[in-house]
Amino acid sequence: MGISSGGRTPTLTELRTIDVSELPIPVPGDGELLVKLRATGVCGTDLHLYESDWGFMPVVLGHDAVGEVVGSGQRVVIDPAISCGACGACRAGRRSACTEYKFLGLTAPGTFSQYLTLPKTNVIPIPDSLSDEAGTVLEPICVALHLQERLQRVVSTDSQVLIVGGGPIGIVAARVLMLAGYEVTVVENVESRRTRVRSWGIECLAPEDMKPSRSENGARPVAVETSSSISGAEFAMAWVGIGGVIAVIGAPALQIRLGDTVLKDQTIMGIRGGAGRYPEAVALVAAGTLPVGELVSHRRSIADLEEVIIETNRNPLDIYRTVLMHS
To answer: What angle, 0 to 180 degrees and rounded to 10, lies between the N-to-C axes of helices 139-152 and 278-286?
Structure first.
């Protein structure tokens, strides 16, 4: 599972500091490919890591990208969740629980670098009909598919589902769960984002307009936290009430008293990535079922990386999703 970066490599060396260096182009080992990056998305995780120390520095950020295999020129997307394939969890089909799990842009060099060596299993060919831009918004689909799989083990489609946060991951999670048969509502503070959510055919309300969860059929209500905010997490836990399920995709810094979850008989599950689900995500986008390219609002050069992160953190409501183009 050797992942190496090379060429023009921007590294987050300390909080709010990205240093750019020119590294030798790495040589892939057995079972690996060398990929030259073409386009990469700027995700909320990248924005948070720039401002908050999660213990991963120094690190090359980025995890949602399209590249081409050096030698063949094949356009590919990159599954950023690297698993060993041999441990008990992997053999059981739970790659996100791999004991050797690595994730690009966190515990391994990410897609803001110019070149990466990657396991062949993490490099997925894409058709010409799938644009570079759309290919940089596939990881949210994979996360949503992982979410769907986990929820189906706990609740049926009779459950009412609330998605907290109307960003790209919130929209994609809502659409994937709706395709699976769930009744879904998104709650979002900002009117412009509510408008975007509704344009995808998803019910979206302001927090003050949300009614309490209902369970006339006895099904457990589900709240999916995608906002990464403390207020969003608190809203999710309050809304599901007694017996509810909270699935956490964002990473809010909320302290939870386990005694409260006992008294409310609640289930909390963390959704870590979407390992192994990229072929399904590619098929959904290529078929037009999930037109995630529409979520891209800004296009910039990778040379503008730090400027983009600073601007987005300063004005997060003005920038929905940025794609950075590698030269």
So the answer is: 110
Taking the C-alpha atoms of residue 132 and residue 71, their distance in angstroms, rounded to an integer, is 19
pTM: 0.93
Q: Looking at the structure, tell me whether residues 222 and 201 fall in a common domain.
A: yes
Cα–Cα distance measured from residue 90 to residue 98, given in angstroms and rounded to the nearest whole number? 6
Residue 1 has pLDDT above 70, yes or no: no
Query: What is the rounded CA–CA span in Å between residue 320 and residue 182?
Result: 26
- DSSP at 263: H
Q: Residue 45 belongs to what domain range?
A: 4-136+296-325
Tokens 């709706």 sit at which residue? 178
Question: Which residue did the predictor score with more confidence, 252 or 311?
Answer: 311
Confidence of residue 215 (pLDDT cuts 50, 70, 90): confident
The residue from 229, 253, 270 where one domain ends is 270
Average pLDDT over the chain, rounded to whole? 95
